[in-house]
Amino acid sequence: MNKEIPYKIYLDENEMPKQWYNIRADMKNKPAPLLNPGTLKPMTADELEHVFCKELVQQELNDTDAFFDIPDEILRFYKMYRPSPLVRAYCLEERLQTPAKIYYKFEGNNTSGSHKLNSAIAQAYYAKKQGLKGVTTETGAGQWGTALSMACSYFELDCKVYMVKVSYEQKPFRREVMRTYGASVTPSPSNHTAVGQKILDEHPNTGGSLGCAISEAVEVATTNDGYRYVLGSVLNQVLLHQSIIGLETKAAMDKYEIKPDIIIGCAGGGSNLGGLISPFMGEKLKGLADYDFIAVEPASCPSFTRGKFAYDFCDTGMVCPLSKMYTLGSNFIPSANHAGGLRYHGMSSTLSQLYHDGFIKAVAVEQTSVFEAAQKFARVEGILPAPESSHAIKVAIDEALKCKETGEEKTILFGLTGTGYFDLMAYRKFNDKEMSDYIPTDEDLQNSFDKLPKLS
Amino acid sequence: MNKEIPYKIYLDENEMPKQWYNIRADMKNKPAPLLNPGTLKPMTADELEHVFCKELVQQELNDTDAFFDIPDEILRFYKMYRPSPLVRAYCLEERLQTPAKIYYKFEGNNTSGSHKLNSAIAQAYYAKKQGLKGVTTETGAGQWGTALSMACSYFELDCKVYMVKVSYEQKPFRREVMRTYGASVTPSPSNHTAVGQKILDEHPNTGGSLGCAISEAVEVATTNDGYRYVLGSVLNQVLLHQSIIGLETKAAMDKYEIKPDIIIGCAGGGSNLGGLISPFMGEKLKGLADYDFIAVEPASCPSFTRGKFAYDFCDTGMVCPLSKMYTLGSNFIPSANHAGGLRYHGMSSTLSQLYHDGFIKAVAVEQTSVFEAAQKFARVEGILPAPESSHAIKVAIDEALKCKETGEEKTILFGLTGTGYFDLMAYRKFNDKEMSDYIPTDEDLQNSFDKLPKLS
After folding, report:
1. ipTM value of the model?
2. What is the pTM of this model?
């Protein structure tokens, strides 16, 4: 029988994971390799090392080793803001009057406001170890850029962030956090790069896009000595680092003899979902335990539920390698959904393979219902959630209400990836009932699918 | 000898304090009573109950009982975001290369972003218990209003917040958090109240002031059935509730056999400082242990270091009772310091008495140096601190650097009251080197002192 479960379970420092877990090692069907867009052959380590840090390339390509030691320097940084709490949502359960038991792993208690810091500190560490001067990246809403600027500041690395111009102007708070941590933040497109200048010449009034910002960041990394490009989601290495979320969760649950029936995560590029489910999925793949995994995506950007499983470009600029994944097409223009972190056209190739093989379910939810769930959660659990995270809350509540109907005492676990302190203009729209829902038509999607690269 | 100290010490739930501690019970010289501004006689419970909740009035007036049981409903809410971590600042120590050991009690890991929630939930609970419909309050920067809106939402109480108009317009994010938690937020002065209307008639373009917002909130509470007024600092009851900070800190330190030599807190109205030091001060008053207590205030609003110990009005509208305290005069207009929570002309009467009796030291620090300390801290400890909290950081760093000179291995404890996520326009000024320091002249202060009420 279970011990009495506290509201928040914190592992002791000596119980914190010392290794990351690489789910690919236990997958029978491995995720397909990245392809060189020129040759259409698998990207080699040599090719990738022009763009990414050496050791991160090794992590990216390794689909056989199940565990990677977490370097001491990273463990040390993790101790500043980890372990994150595994919270029993007693108050939410009571408000819903559900027999279900609800838990959430809360990753928002750090200044970046999300789980992104878990991979940012790892990527900054390997850049430092390689003797680099600095790293470049893009950011949209700003969570990843904030996390990376914190990590670079800690290791005294230069950090150049290309921020989508419209966000740069509309989210001055995020920009100032990054600057306070010493990063340079440039609105993209900029005239610092050839690709940025070209876009500015053609579209002088553009607000920019994530795809353009990626292209600028990659150009700066590859044309400046001592710089590499880093990315906050989608890649295998990111899922590896984010496995810390799931490993801590599993250790905390094992300690109290809790076994989740349903595990829910929001899914944009897949960094949080992949990290949260990794060790549980490992058990499922090995036949040691069974869990229901649910990926939640916005109905406005439904990669899993309405996308194609195909090779596609990771960026809209089409300069990055091709990845086999569930995709809406790199030409798909996501609508103005407030969950900026989930507005990616593709999905981690690892999660895509697992979904394709039937190990994960997916649901798409509409924006207004997500904010209703966010508000309900905030009022009883005392945390104002990020719009991204609220997708998982919405489905956790739905599942708990199903239990209320059936009387089942299921244990539901979801990932609460971050806080909504920098998303209050979205909350304002919700509070003022000005929020709209948007779902792409089949025709919209078909137009985008028609432009997918033809590989043979 | 000490056990190995983790980066973060979390008490177990069963180690959390079950009672608040009332420092007044152990003071030989009690704080002077509140006076009725009309009769100049001590305010009676009957008089106070027109404005405040009944049970809170009892707490306000009780200077003999050392401990008050924390009601179960409040303990339950505390478990959602408490215990707060006591953090060993290993990274800051290393960066400073100091032999000092630095600890901070971090109160920012909740959506209100500060310690204010500790008293908000208590005040909301007693209002609910009394069967009230709701409460009214004022807010400047918005921390207290946010905390109260969260607490009222939890107990399903109506919450009417009067927010200084200039903040209402400049801090839309705070306003939206409060609205998301269901509070009504009115820019003050408003035409909802007689006092607001009068000010608007005289000064139609005013940006408002905290004093005016207090007057409006008190008017609404006293002229509407089922409402009472609540306040987030200064009062004895608030210090009582905030003793949870110090009690948790002391329990955590005792557990690891740590004894602080110096205890540092920022001081505006005194809610955080009073809460943090309470149990340590109790030991000092009883001669059981010795500690150095340092109150840190902004040089622009130096109540302790340059104020008078005298009876004065708690509000600029001069409708509230008179309190004996260190004050700059209720007519003193604090300059545009970004640490909005420290811009109060007076100080808790309990802390004022302790300071007067020599149990607390005080220092005043300038704004730019505070932000320099904040940035240094943020970069190594991973938390972006509130400007208020950063006053304590500044002096903790100064003390640690003194230890570096002398070689003393002192143990320094400070209160990190909250996060700076809603203060990023202040950080922008700092990042752009547009921040200025302002210190009132002796003449400014004398002009204000001349208007102090004459009691005899």
Report:
1. 0.92
2. 0.95
